[in-house]
Write a structure and sequence with these properties.
Structural class: mainly beta
Length: 129
């Protein structure tokens, strides 16, 4: 079983910055972070959960139009951790942020990342205007 634990959310003023972290853990042989494409998703009030950013095994990144130029996804394979640095945040970035991913070979194609694991609890980001 793989566990995803997000952290780093909070209240921030519009125009400010926030850094999120997601640690992936699990039983031996349940996952290999080094072979996983990872992504950050978010679900705002009344909205469906949406993919925000993806990072591949090789470090290539993809972003939604809303995130591009403001958010940066990164990973530390030694720590089984994926990060999301959010800059110039806007009130519309208010959402619960989640990470997820899966083996890149089977879960990532054409910029789309298929969810591979049960969702964690997420971390709330609230942007005040």
């Amino acid at each position: 079983q793989v566990q995803l634990v997000e952290s780093g959310g909070g209240l921030v003023q519009a125009g400010g910055s926030l850094g999120l972290s997601c640690v992936v853990s699990g039983s031996l042989f349940s996952f290999n972070f080094n072979t996983m494409a990872m992504g950050w998703y978010r679900q705002g009030p009344g909205n469906l959960r949406e993919l925000v950013a993806v990072i591949t095994v090789g470090g290539d990144t993809n972003y939604t139009i809303a995130a591009k130029g403001r958010f940066t996804i990164s990973r530390d394979n030694a720590k089984n951790t994926v990060y999301l640095q959010m800059n110039s945040v806007k009130p519309e970035d208010t959402a619960v942020y989640y990470c997820n991913g899966g083996p890149q070979r089977t879960h990532y194609k054409g910029g789309y990342l298929r969810v591979g694991y049960s969702w964690g609890q997420g971390t709330q980001v609230t942007v005040s205007s």
